[in-house]
Amino acid sequence: MAHHDYDCVVVGAGVEGSATGYHLTITGHKTLLLEQFTLGHSKGSSHGQSRMIRYTYRQIHYANMMPECFQTWERLGGEVGTELYRKTGLLAVNGPPHQDYTLRSESLRVMGKPCELPTVGEICQRHPGFSFGPEHKAFVDPNGGVLRADSCLHALQTMFLKQGGVVKENEEVLEIVPGDPVLIVTSKGRYTAKSVVLTPGAWASKMLRPLGIDPPLKVTQLKVCYCPERQPGAFGNYPCFYYLSEKYETCGLPCDDHSGLFKVYNDHGDELQGPDQQNQAQHSHQIETLMSFIREHVPGLIPEPSLVEKCLYTSTPDKDIILDMHPDHPNIVIGCGFSGHGFKLAPAVGRILSELATGTTPSYDISPMSLKRFPNNGRLAAKV
């Protein structure tokens, strides 16, 4: 098998790995990006036509990353000549006790970003396709909007290649041998590198356990539904929305690529034993819950999806992501457990992972994302 040397090998060419490669090649590092499937495949978490982006965040450490993310997506769009972001505004609606409303709206104030505070009556008058009772509170993040996800991923990979990066797809990693350099054994070759960045998405546990790392990760599959408008074109100027109450946690966003449809999904999916089980999973209750939400709160949509897609989440118990170095092998860098935050944050995540891989002090405080928050620094429990 061929032998190649790189400054860094990135394993997993989803949006996090592609963003990491993008930053590594900007700084002149010879980088290989490995993907076990074809680029842009639909088996993981980075595919699809749209994702939501916003400044508002409950967790201030993510809110602090969002200015760079907005700037990078805009710059990247200019580099490839494609509009990657459409500003629609984000409507956040919260039922009692309104804690989420307080934390998210406060994050905008702390960052000095605009925050509109309409009443729910004003919202429903402005957007009659919505229906929220007076027990709700709401605010609008006017800079929120839609990322064109497939185009974002393609743009990162295009610039990675343009900047000198190497991509190998349909090449599964079979073994990672710690050392200096680290050895990466694949189904087609053997590569050595000064460092390796692991962004394997839902395959994280499978890849990390042989390296003695086993943070608590849960893989779930979401059903993403596209519901038709009752009046064609009525939702054309509607914002993205995030709704949270004791009964529902639901997101929705306009669909540029599916005329007359609006994208909606619950933030909770069905747990899988592993990503390879997803084709056998049953999800009818997800859709039932989602359609119940539509009937109650979005009567402008028909509660019967015209199109259903699947998406994987890989989550940690505290819903914070993992960005860290292996506790025993600092040239093995880990990015996983993105818990539904990952796509919008990818520009900042890619910067952080590239900094960890090259021995540079991270641009952000990553202590909330450290393996140290888990027992024994996330190491695999010893067998008794």
Automatic annotation (TrEMBL):
<dbReference type="GO" id="GO:0050660">
    <property type="term" value="F:flavin adenine dinucleotide binding"/>
</dbReference>
<protein>
    <recommendedName>
        <fullName>FAD dependent oxidoreductase domain-containing protein</fullName>
    </recommendedName>
</protein>
<keyword id="KW-0285">Flavoprotein</keyword>
<keyword id="KW-0274">FAD</keyword>
<dbReference type="GO" id="GO:0005777">
    <property type="term" value="C:peroxisome"/>
</dbReference>
<dbReference type="GO" id="GO:0033514">
    <property type="term" value="P:L-lysine catabolic process to acetyl-CoA via L-pipecolate"/>
</dbReference>
<dbReference type="GO" id="GO:0050031">
    <property type="term" value="F:L-pipecolate oxidase activity"/>
</dbReference>
<dbReference type="GO" id="GO:0008115">
    <property type="term" value="F:sarcosine oxidase activity"/>
</dbReference>
<feature type="domain" description="FAD dependent oxidoreductase">
    <location>
        <begin position="7"/>
        <end position="356"/>
    </location>
</feature>
<dbReference type="InterPro" id="IPR006076">
    <property type="entry name" value="FAD-dep_OxRdtase"/>
</dbReference>
<dbReference type="InterPro" id="IPR045170">
    <property type="entry name" value="MTOX"/>
</dbReference>
<dbReference type="InterPro" id="IPR036188">
    <property type="entry name" value="FAD/NAD-bd_sf"/>
</dbReference>
<dbReference type="Pfam" id="PF01266">
    <property type="entry name" value="DAO"/>
</dbReference>
<keyword id="KW-0560">Oxidoreductase</keyword>
<comment type="similarity">
    <text>Belongs to the MSOX/MTOX family.</text>
</comment>
